[in-house]
Amino acid sequence: MLGALKTQSTQGFSLLELLVVLAISSILMALALPAYQHAVIRARRTEGQVALWQLLQQQERFYTQANSYQAFSASATEPEARQFKWWSGSGASNSAYEIEGKACDGEAINQCVQLIATPGTSRVDGRFRDKDCQQLILTSRGKQSATGREERCWP
Question: Membrane-crossing residues (predicted)?
Answer without folding.
Answer: 12-36
